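Late entry, written up from scratch paper. The run itself happened at the end of the previous shift, but nothing got recorded in the book at the time, so transcribing now.
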Amino acid sequence: MSHYSIEFDIPLYCCQFLDSDRIALGGGGGTSKSGITNKLFIIKINSSKNQSFEKLEDFHLPKGQDAPMSLDFDKKANQLICGINSPKSDRNEHLRTYSIDKKSKLKPSSARQIFIDTSEEDYQKLTRLSDSAPKFLAIGGTNNQLDILTYPNFKHVFSALRCDAKDKECQLMATDFHQNGSQFLLGSTHFVQLYSTKTKSSKPGSKRSPAALIRQFDPPQPSPNQSCTFRNARYGRGKNSQTLYTIVNYLPLSRMGPRQKPRWGVSDRKAVLISWNIENGSAIRTKAVSNKPVTAFDVSPNGDLLAFASSDLSVGILDASSLRSLLSILHAHEFPVTGICFSPDNKRVVSCSADKTVRVIEIREDITTSWSSTTHLLFIAFLLLFLAILFQLTRTDSFISKKRI
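Output as recorded:
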């Protein structure tokens, strides 16, 4: 399994595969007067042997517009869906679409405002398109608002959801659709909620009805010296379609006296992956994946693999059923990862970072079986070593006994 890094000229915040070889990327310097341009890229990854790439599109956003912070791709319409803020002096048409032509060149298609109750600093941090028809689009903002829209008409399906309605400290972190389109999730720091996509019939002109809550998942109870929050959530796919995956970050609570520095053990700080049964809400498996918070997470299209990135700059790949570790790259980037995703054919993982790089990981088709084979060989090797040591000790004891006689 090989991996390599690709350098760019701007910080990168989001990434999405268009097909098995082409990747869309977004980033830039934001609205600050740093001189760093805000851009959308489309690149093509060549064969894994020469580890090269082609830059098919280098699209500069107009001056004053913010950096792309989230994106998704509509394969059928060949259209990119992005979260990009307008200049602060204008109406904030943050939901953008761009058509992609046969040469992978971008052309602006539409721009509209969905979020109303926002500040100048708020932006569209989540953009997620459903897999199955009828299509839905979920967009979430740093104002903790989640909207479910019809696609491609961008009409509200339900009234807007707010994760901070009862707790102002709660922050929106994730959204996703079940692969059959029957439900969607709202992931926040304090809970993960599953909602039905079924709508109630209403009279024309009546208020939008709220989405029907199916189930809520709460984070584990932390120890007295820890805080525990959800960081990400995704539905499983394929054979794991009835599984929900959540990332839980544990952080130490400061225990500072008047002239004391905080003291805590390494065990107080960790990231844990929990798989849940979405039918009955029970936890299936739990696995500690890092000693630092996880910053990005994704599930492969076929549902066999999971990918995560930690703030310790590592990237890992896990088996989605057993949660066993299959690959770990210890220093994938110089800064924490901002986005990670699988290719449609499940053969690649890419991660992007504000360090201006993309890490490309080529996945072997036999990654799960090769891990099992390696484990069995190691077990046999240790068993043979143990038997050899035991045999040698037995011979030594026998020799000493004869010598005494």
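The CA atoms of residues 274 and 286 lie 4 Å apart.
(Scratch paper discarded after transcription.)
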